[in-house]
Amino acid sequence: MGDVVTTESHPGFDLDLSAPRLVQLEGQEEPMIMTELEKIQAKARGIRFFDVTDTPELGTRAHLRVANKPSYPAPNNTQTVKSVIESLKIQNLQDILAKFTSFRTRHYRSQTGKESQRWLLRKITELTEEYAPEALQESISIREFDHSWQQSSIIVGINGTSADDDGVVILGAHLDSTNDSPFLPAPGADDDGSGTTSILEAYRALIEAGFRPERTVEFHWYSAEEGGLLGSQAVVKSYESRGVNVIAMSQYDMTAWVKRGTKEEVGIVTDYTDPDLTEFNKKLVEQYLSVPWVETKCGHACSDHASWNKAGYPSVFTIESAYENVNVQYVHTQNDTYDISDEFSFEHILEFSKLAVGFAIELGGWKKSS
């Protein structure tokens, strides 16, 4: 791990390393003040945290939602889900990731980070225009969720058809990347180009099939996960303030790595997640994936599901393997590319696309025309 670059004069970056930030560490009720540089150094040492500078009140009403949790049925749309899964294509994953990792960095305070986000937004729009039937396009919204930094988050919604169910189902990934030294290249193929492409290919296959959920289903690509879950916390704060009824959220962060010498499996994270939704997630893996699940733990503020969990919304996280076998060698370096090792597997990424399809259909429902 290299030394963190400390100069502030880097073209294309809007990053004040001396800026004070409010940071919440594990076990802390009261946040502490760190400079941006101290925050970067802490992350490079493997310390996870929420940067709560803009969202200090998030979580104060969590108990109200926890007391009114929904229940989750066993998967029961098997043939429908499998028919959509059959249309998933590895070539699409490869094409998206080739472009998405070509930006020097997707750091949320960099110009190329903004450019990569705008490219992803255009790609989502193009796929929607190409694959969604015209009648379905009228029910799809694609928007940027702006932040105080350069890079926006992206929110895509497929409106629910039910007049009686205001529930929302969310599938998320983060679109930013970082190097431990933030001004250095960060292609971010696994972290989190892999999760980004997993849910994007699921979205493409769903709209190609004319997916009309009974509940609204949304796909989120968050900015600034690497800055302390900044983007997702801002989104959750907005949803909380508007009283959005989020019944389930599933995060996809690092979905590509199959460590040499291990068997292929997916990691079901059991800490800082909803236990009932986690059990449902296991059933989806058993029903629709070609590989088994294994329980694992990821720790405090591990990815964007933690922002939803903090606010009391049911959320789950599925990662590429048991945590001890994830890609720690290359993430947050300039070598996080899809061609650095045969341990990077597009076939494995596709398993998570299958999971995303199952999650969307089983929890969103599907109003089929007669």
From TrEMBL:
The keyword Signal applies. Its EC number is 3.4.-.-. One of its GO terms (biological process) is proteolysis. It comes from the Eukaryota. GO terms for molecular function: aminopeptidase activity; metal ion binding; metalloexopeptidase activity. CDD domains: M28_AAP (cd03879). The keyword Transmembrane helix does not apply. Residues 154-350 form the Peptidase M28 domain. Keywords: Aminopeptidase, Hydrolase, Metal-binding, Protease, Signal, Zinc. Its cofactor is Zn(2+). PANTHER family: AMINOPEPTIDASE YDR415C-RELATED, METALLOPEPTIDASE M28 FAMILY MEMBER. Belongs to the peptidase M28 family. M28E subfamily. This is Peptide hydrolase. It comes from Dichomitus squalens. The lineage of its organism: Eukaryota, Fungi, Dikarya, Basidiomycota, Agaricomycotina.
